[in-house]
Amino acid sequence: MRSEVKELIRDQEKAEVSRAERLLERLEQEIAELRRRDAELEQFSHTEDDIHFLQSCQATGGHLQGEFVKISQTVNKVHILEPRIREDFLQYSCQLTLDPNTANRHLRLSEGNRERVQEKRKWFKECGQLLRERRMTYTIMFPAILIVNAPGGQRRFEDLKKAQAFIR
């Protein structure tokens, strides 16, 4: 039994020594490659001829083309699209409860704090703001749509950017 344990330990030791030697050999190769590249770059830095320098840089940058291809393939796999149509945006929709403590003084909220109550004034003088009651956990936020009805039922603003540009 004792001899079997010793033999097992020796076998494991040999396997680990062999693995360490392979790693050491690979590291020595990487060091040699880095030293070669360092020498090339040092030589390029002393080159007076710009055309020769550019041609040499293109030759050494060839390995980057393969990396570019790998990155492009990975990006294509990720495939996260920005929403563009109503159905895409609907996946982010939720019922909002508005926080009356953060409402602009010109805004009045309905019972349940779900919507703004129309006031008797014809137009807002300022762009009112308020926040959602509970923190949103989405990683993507979209500007909310603000629609103010003008006399006669026409839309005054279609989104916050237009509203802010109009008020300024």
Automatic annotation (TrEMBL):
Residues 2-59 form the TRIM8/14/16/25/29/45/65 coiled-coil region domain. One of its GO terms (molecular function) is zinc ion binding. Residues 10-44 form a coiled coil. This is TRIM8/14/16/25/29/45/65 coiled-coil region domain-containing protein. Keywords: Coiled coil, Metal-binding, Zinc, Zinc-finger.
